[in-house]
């Protein structure tokens, strides 16, 4: 009995009893993450899988008339925000402190280009800062970065494509085993006219396309994140035996 109690104490000291293996996913971005329905569609798509119980996290709960009352609305989409400003103002630091995550998706850069004509170099530098913030929060953060969707207004798509091209070598350089970065292409196959409701935000057809692009990458990221957590448990079990 004494030995049994000692074992429990050791387990508590190691944090085993406090460990929660429910995965946490943060959808992070601007209005193309906040006032859209791809989050609802993606959540629905996951309900028939083992990832139905993943906890979506973030400070926002914006709903966009998605005609879906059930989905987990928590997200970190901020309409009008620039990647560069989020990085410079260290906003993601607090967002992740309040809502830690295992997996994060990022669709950013549209406002940098459209509102302020920022250079690809400066946007990519902001991405580097944001990835560092993610890894400071969780050294094993699984990161999915989008090559962003086209615009239907103005003539921004050349610059958007320049950013999208630069994302690949940047992600390869920043990649790591503990905290992989996967790039998904939200641009190719997305129509700047028939997939947007207002020239900027996806309509039903665009939301479906975006959900379908996120889906396989997100499922893979959940698998890798779960395997990582299981490995931590396996290491701790012999201590308690
Ligand atoms: C783990 O976290 C999830 C979601 O935050 C919660 O629903 C669940 O009750 C927690 N489980 C334990 C054992 O604390
Ligand atoms: C990063 O590494 C993972 C394997 O850990 C790989 O699947 C992924 O494609 C790599 N990312 C890039 C941008 O090359
Ligand atoms: C999406 O919006 C465009 C115009 O913005 C329209 O042509 C198209 O029919 C819409 N599609 C759907 C599925 O809402």
UniProtKB/TrEMBL annotation:
GO terms for molecular function: phosphatidylcholine lysophospholipase activity. Residues 28-206 form the SGNH hydrolase-type esterase domain. PANTHER family: CELLULOSE-BINDING PROTEIN, THIOESTERASE 1/PROTEASE 1/LYSOPHOSPHOLIPASE L1. Keywords: Signal. Residues 1-18 form the signal peptide. The keyword Transferase does not apply. InterPro entries: Ester_Hydrolysis_Enzymes, SGNH_hydro, SGNH_hydro_sf. This is SGNH hydrolase-type esterase domain-containing protein. Pfam families: Lipase_GDSL_2.
